[in-house]
Write a structure and sequence with these properties.
alpha+beta, Aminoglycoside 3'-phosphotransferase, Chain: A, domain 2, five-stranded antiparallel β-sheet
Length: 370
């Protein structure tokens, strides 16, 4: 058995309250139950409560979920949601991405408000229970549909605010309270177009963001409770790493300046144009906090993704050249928390070697400095 298979077998034994847990986290097992091959894209797991898996299949994008009781499965199976029972697994349902239990109401709302908006649209990403990202037919625009309406910062107003102070962003058009459209732009993000010049420009753009006026509804982006939650998520799937995760959570930096921050900054949040221009995207977690957290998050993600990346230095130089207030000590102080916050992602992405990648992420937090 592979390390991932061993970890999943142990997880299934520890959590018998979620029926079919091992099946939904194993592409081969889930495909056998559904009667067709699947490729797992992303999972959400709540210990003793539920597991939701988004997958690709020959029939298109889909999802499957298992719950600790019948109520949520029953709600997912009502006629207008069109989810079907998973054969042989109690309290488990499956359906197309559009029937995701949390997202189906938002999709129906969009269909009523903008009939035909998504006709021929291509699904790009499905974060089960959270959001769908689709490319409109013809490729001219991207539509994001979320399970919950923005309760703080509407994307269209935020785009205007940031653009007005020189932050390179894309305009956003409201379709409904839970759906937004932005133009398709660029040649790809900084992970697929890793230009040092673009990284330098991204650093300058980040400096502009950190100088932006604080939106009235902005909230702190992180705190000790977030670090504790990240450590708990690691302990749930790999209990042998629990003490290391808890030790990183205890290293939450205190104090520091409060600025507008991206909250989830990494190379895939930077679009790169054919001329080298950049646009910052995905401000779902924008709020207030220490700006060095954004820089540390970018550096940690690059370290985890590539081991070493020239983009880190270029981003920092661009930030400095644009007048960003760089604090090397605070940047290093945020590395443990940024690594911990990202450590569960290999599990959620269903990476084949996710146990080793989780361990590697914790090691970055324990001993690496940019």
């Amino acid at each position: 058995m592979t390390p991932a298979a061993i970890a999943l077998a142990r997880l299934r034994e520890r959590d018998p309250r979620v029926p079919g847990l091992g099946t939904l986290l194993d592409a081969d097992a889930l495909g056998a139950v559904l009667g067709h091959p699947v490729h797992l894209r992303r999972v959400r797991y709540k210990p003793a409560t539920s597991v939701i898996a988004a997958f690709d299949s020959p029939h298109g994008a889909g999802w499957a979920a298992a719950y600790d009781g019948p109520d949520k499965a029953r709600v997912s199976s009502v006629p207008h949601r069109r989810a079907d029972p998973v054969p042989g697994i109690a309290h488990a349902v499956t359906g197309t991405a559009r029937t995701d239990r949390a997202l189906a109401p938002a999709m129906r709302e969009l269909d009523r408000a903008r009939p035909g908006e998504l006709t021929g649209a291509q699904l790009l990403r499905h974060n089960p229970g959270r959001r769908l990202v689709l490319a409109e037919a013809g490729g001219g625009a991207i539509v994001k549909v979320v399970a919950r309406a923005a309760d703080r910062l509407r994307p269209d107003a935020l785009a205007v605010l940031l653009s007005d102070v020189g932050v390179p962003v894309l305009p956003a058009e409201r379709l409904t309270d839970r759906a937004w459209r932005a133009p398709y732009w660029g040649e790809g993000d900084l992970t697929v177009a890793p230009s040092p010049d673009a990284a330098f420009r991204a650093g300058a753009a980040l400096a502009a963001l950190h100088r932006a006026p604080t939106p009235v509804a902005a909230r702190p982006v992180t705190g000790p409770s977030d670090a504790a939650a990240a450590a708990t998520a690691i302990a749930a799937v790999l209990p042998e790493l629990a003490s290391r995760a808890a030790a990183l959570a205890a290293r939450h930096p205190a104090g520091g300046p409060e600025r507008v921050v991206h909250g989830d900054f990494s190379a895939d949040q930077v679009l790169v144009g054919a001329d080298g221009e950049v646009r910052l995207i995905d401000f779902d977690r924008l709020g207030t906090g220490d700006p060095m957290r954004d820089l540390a998050g970018f550096a940690v993600e690059e370290r985890m993704r590539l081991g070493a990346s020239p983009l880190i230095g270029e981003l920092i130089e661009g930030y400095r050249a644009a007048g960003g207030e760089l604090d090397d000590a605070r940047l290093r102080a945020w590395v443990p928390l940024c690594a911990l916050g990202r450590a569960i992602e290999p599990f959620r992405r269903c990476d084949p070697d996710w146990p080793a990648l989780v361990d590697r992420a914790l090691a970055v937090g324990e001993g690496w400095t940019p």
